[in-house]
Amino acid sequence: MGVGMNSGLVSTHWDDRYETGVRSSWFSSAIVGSELNRRITGDDKFWLWWVFNEYLPEKPKKILSIGCGDGAHELIIARNHWAASVDAFDLSPAGIKQAADAAEAEGLNANFFVRDFNDFIQNPGGDYDAVIFIGSLHHVTDLEGMLGAVRKSLVPNGYLIINEYCGPCYNIYDQKRVDLLNNVIKSISAPYKRNPDARWTNHSIELVFSVDPSESVRSSLILPFLEFYFDKELLRPFGGALLHPIFDLLNGEKINDGSEDSNTVVRMLIELENQLQANGAIPSDFMLGVYRNSKA
Asked: Of 10, 2, 285, 7, which is closest to residue 144 (Cα–Cα)?
């Protein structure tokens, strides 16, 4: 989080999410998950497995994960021995407790601890072979400070691995996108919608700040800022401009019930996003990137 941001509010918000198991709606669909992996890897391989087993020339010894949440991805790395050791921190005590308890129970070489973004920015270090952000960099206000601190924490030519939202700040879309979302949701049968009158309305800044003021705070600057600090080695946009918000308007239980009709609706939404993005009608709001620390 950035200087002046209400860290207590953000911490409480994420504690609640980890304790209740709330996740982003589009990740609840196995079909969408498979499609996102395909967009990143070219195949139906789990993107994290692909990065460590097919993309990186050798497995890193020391990894630092910044904003690890409940440690789901970091535990996978540790379980599969994709790194000799994993350090990971987050602001949420509830998320860190879940991760640390799992690591201890399984005897994994993974160290989870509570830490604020600002503390890391002010006190970086560690000689890590790789630093990873998985859906956390878009919560950072001081991108310049964070990326500079990451650079100091990496060994020369070390890797920065990012799976991230890089779309409009605060998820506030332009009118063209809002109209598209509402035209699409209007065409979907009522049983598949969260409610019969479901429609997209941008949140007000006041509402954003009252829930989580760190949400997508400077997300649209992530891609250009990364290239100021690191050398880009790989960039794989994987969409989300339609799918990510539209799933918040859908009936999650119905759309994921496994029926052929429900699966057909999901596949049609995926194809619509593919076609719109291929024709330049919508951007990609999410990306997988691999960068190198060669500008230090």
From this structure: 2
Residues 33, 47: Cα–Cα separation, whole Å: 10
What is the token pair recorded at 172? Answer: 């506030």
Average pLDDT on 253-280 reads 97
Burial of 217 (0-12, 13-18, 19+ CB in 10 A): buried
Nearest to 222 by CA among 139, 119, 124: 139
Which pLDDT value is given to residue 9? 53
Total-model pTM: 0.91
- Mean pLDDT across 86-102: 96
Sheet holding 128-134, edge to edge: 110-114, 85-90, 62-66, 128-134, 154-165, 286-292, 231-237
Give the integer Cα–Cα distance in Å for 112 and 200. 37
Q: What is the pLDDT of residues 131-171, one digit of tens each?
A: 999 999 999 999 999 999 999 999 999 999 999 999 999 99
Largest CA distance in the chain: 55
Round to whole Å and give the CA distance between 249 and 186.
Answer: 10
The C-alpha atoms of residue 131 and residue 62 are separated, in whole angstroms, by 9
